[in-house]
Design brief:
Layout (H helix, E strand, L loop, with lengths): L14 H10 L4 H16 L41 H7 L6 E6 L2 E7 L1 H5 L3 E3 L1 H7 L1 H7 L11 H9 L4 E5 L9 E6 L6 E2 L2 E6 L4 E9 L7 E11 L4 E9 L4 E11 L2 E12 L5 E5 L15
Parallel strand pairs: 1-5, 4-7, 5-8, 6-9, 7-9, 8-10, 9-11
Antiparallel strand pairs: 1-2, 3-4, 10-13, 11-12
């Protein structure tokens, strides 16, 4: 879990901040090196220009990355939903699910998974814990062939600073018919949030995942840069739904990629969009072609 930071270079988007994040999370050396390499890639790629096709409709003049806090701690996770802040509880509402993961700002805040699913080998945990407890699984897939840091400048920034995040792993032949829900909540102004969703379904597995991102309106510039990686074995089926309900003053960059080992492709990517939710829902049982599956809309 991210600990409180002293106000130094570690409070800016910098290599020092990358190291501070790794140190605070007690990360294994392989993950520390992946973050450092992602930062090197980030620095080597120039900022997008208005003449670039993907960015020609995006105004980057208000993007001052030096003003963005790379991560902020909120303290220990809680055992019950009643211990979460009231606004967050209201955003969660009531929904029958087989499991719930809550991330508040940079930290995992709450976890619940149906004991029957745990007995069947399903993993539904925050990615920081997964990297420590299941290193071989995470090392094999995290920021790999589906979404390497070299995908672009902001993908590399995300790879260097992801925090919290989520791992869903479903063993071979296990079918989950009730939705699993991940909810990311941001309520600290002038910070960057970098949640990462990693889904691995073994052959013949089946799951439904609702991935939510919510915040009130916050002061100053707030950056959301998320990544979604989905890896499917032969015959696996995933129904993935993403919902965003951000407040104002938010710039966001989202990259979603799905694939089978040895064959992957981006299926949704967006430039930095101010105050624009990106709702999407799609069944996935083979890697989709490299085109947008998410409907971009102003709501």
């Amino acid at each position: 879990m991210v600990q409180a930071m002293i106000r130094t270079e570690a409070q800016r988007l910098s290599l020092e901040a990358v190291g501070a994040l790794s140190w605070a999370n007690d990360e294994p050396e392989w993950l520390q090196e992946r973050r450092r390499e992602a930062w090197r890639i980030y620095e080597s790629i120039p900022m997008p220009k208005p003449t670039d096709e993907e960015w020609r409709r995006t105004d980057l003049s208000g993007l001052v990355l030096d003003e963005v806090l790379p991560f902020v701690a909120d303290g220990a996770s809680v055992a019950t939903l009643g211990e979460l802040p009231r606004d967050l509880r209201q955003a969660l509402g009531e929904m029958q699910t087989g499991g719930l993961l809550v991330q508040r700002n940079s930290d995992a805040a709450y976890r619940r998974l149906d004991p029957e699913l745990e007995k069947r080998g399903v993993l539904f945990i925050d990615l920081e814990t997964a990297a420590r407890d299941y290193p071989e699984l995470v090392q094999q897939y995290l920021l790999g062939e589906a979404l390497p840091p070299s995908y672009g400048k902001f993908a590399a920034l995300h790879a260097a600073f992801w925090s919290g995040g989520m791992l869903l792993y479903v063993p071979r032949g296990v079918e989950i018919d009730i939705p699993l829900r991940a909810h990311t909540w941001m309520d600290i102004p002038r910070m960057g949030i970098f949640p990462h969703t990693l889904v691995v379904l073994e052959p013949g597995a089946k799951a439904l995942l609702l991935d939510e991102y919510v915040s009130p309106t916050l002061d100053g510039l707030n950056l959301a840069s998320a990544g979604v990686e989905i890896y499917l074995g032969e015959g696996a089926q995933l129904t993935y739904a993403q919902a965003q309900d951000w407040g104002r003053n938010k710039l966001q960059y989202w990259t979603c990629c799905a694939g089978t080992p040895g064959r992957s492709s981006p299926w949704a990517s967006s430039p930095l969009l101010p105050d624009t939710p990106l709702p999407c829902s799609c069944p996935i049982n083979t890697p989709p072609p490299p085109s947008s599956w998410c409907v971009r809309s102003n709501q």
